[in-house]
Recover the amino acids of this structure.
């Protein structure tokens, strides 16, 4: 080996099949301030770090990174900034479950309730066991219902726009069968739906881009309520039922009066894994989703960057 090595210590887990890479050492210096301020510094001064961790050859497209930071709010066990192959996520439900299990694995927290600070608010994580976690997500709500969009090759697709920590377009009645061997056609349909939303100027609040698409259909398990396919910003699909996507779904069900506070909703993913979800209501018409799932540690190690490696920051891709 030549040149000076830089090491980035990580722990990988998967939550219901969806991977999370927690950076425990060797992350960028983001100084102090709110998590959203540090996210801005991360984006502006250290985006190469995100690319190195997520992109091939050290990462892959489905991976979500989680940079552990000192929390600004001392009631929190940790601050965390989530990122993926295209940029940064306000919140990540499967990722928060992965972070909680990783903090437990590291001996930094015990079982029971902890708080995590994210750029979009504080989330509570309750470690029910070494691998099982319930998260109380950020307040979630439906912004628009029954929005029609003209999608190339698919015709009119109708969906709801909802916030669950990220912006989602939720479509009941998937345009393709909800099985894993259809992931390529599902991804294609979801990408075209996303392109159409952009073209027609359909956005989340304050013009925010709707960068996650969710298709729903009947579940395979008799005790589940629904199966989904969730398409993420970097053209990867979520192997889990998606924590923020399930939160957005709960917000729609609540708004339609189809699910009552405290009632259980079992959301199945495209690979058959599941989250058990429910909600409580806030005073201002939003909901607080509770999402329970399991995560398992699957590897830990050190990512190495050498100054003379032409791909020390990974292989970038524009989406
Ligand atoms: O679980 O919230 C989630 C999530 C977002 C993107 C991938 N997973």
């Amino acid at each position: 080996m030549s040149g000076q090595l830089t090491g980035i210590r990580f722990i990988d887990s998967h939550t219901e099949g969806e991977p999370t890479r927690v950076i425990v050492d060797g992350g960028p210096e983001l100084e102090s301030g709110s998590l959203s301020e540090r996210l801005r510094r991360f984006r502006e001064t250290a985006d190469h770090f995100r690319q190195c961790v997520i992109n091939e050859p050290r990462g892959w497209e489905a991976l979500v990174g989680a940079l552990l930071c000192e929390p600004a709010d001392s009631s929190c066990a940790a601050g965390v900034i989530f990122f993926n192959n295209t940029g940064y996520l306000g919140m990540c439900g499967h990722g928060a479950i992965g972070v909680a299990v990783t903090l437990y694995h590291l001996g930094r927290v015990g079982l029971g309730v902890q708080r995590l600070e994210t750029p979009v608010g504080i989330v509570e994580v309750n470690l029910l066991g070494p691998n099982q976690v319930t998260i109380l997500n950020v307040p979630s709500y439906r912004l628009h219902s029954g929005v029609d969009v003209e999608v190339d090759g698919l015709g009119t697709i109708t969906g709801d726009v909802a916030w669950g920590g990220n912006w989602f377009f939720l479509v009941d009645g998937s345009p393709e069968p909800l099985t894993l061997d259809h992931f390529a056609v599902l991804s294609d349909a979801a990408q075209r739906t996303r392109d159409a939303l952009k073209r027609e100027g359909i956005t989340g609040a304050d013009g925010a881009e709707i960068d996650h698409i969710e298709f729903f259909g009947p579940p395979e398990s008799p005790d589940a309520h629904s199966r989904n396919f969730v398409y993420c910003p970097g053209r990867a699909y979520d192997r889990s039922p998606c924590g923020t996507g399930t939160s957005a779904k709960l917000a729609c069900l609540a708004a339609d009066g189809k699910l009552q506070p405290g009632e259980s909703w079992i959301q199945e993913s495209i690979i058959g894994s599941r989250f058990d979800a429910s909600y409580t209501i806030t005073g201002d018409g939003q909901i607080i989703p509770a999402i329970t799932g399991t995560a398992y540690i699957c590897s830990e190690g050190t990512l190495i960057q050498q100054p003379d490696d032409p791909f020390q920051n990974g292989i970038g891709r524009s989406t």
Remarks:
- The longest strand covers residues 287-305.
- The domain at 6-137+297-305 is CATH 3.10.310.10 (Diaminopimelate Epimerase; Chain A, domain 1).
- The chain has two domains: 6-137+297-305, 141-285.
- The two ends are 33 Å apart (CA to CA).
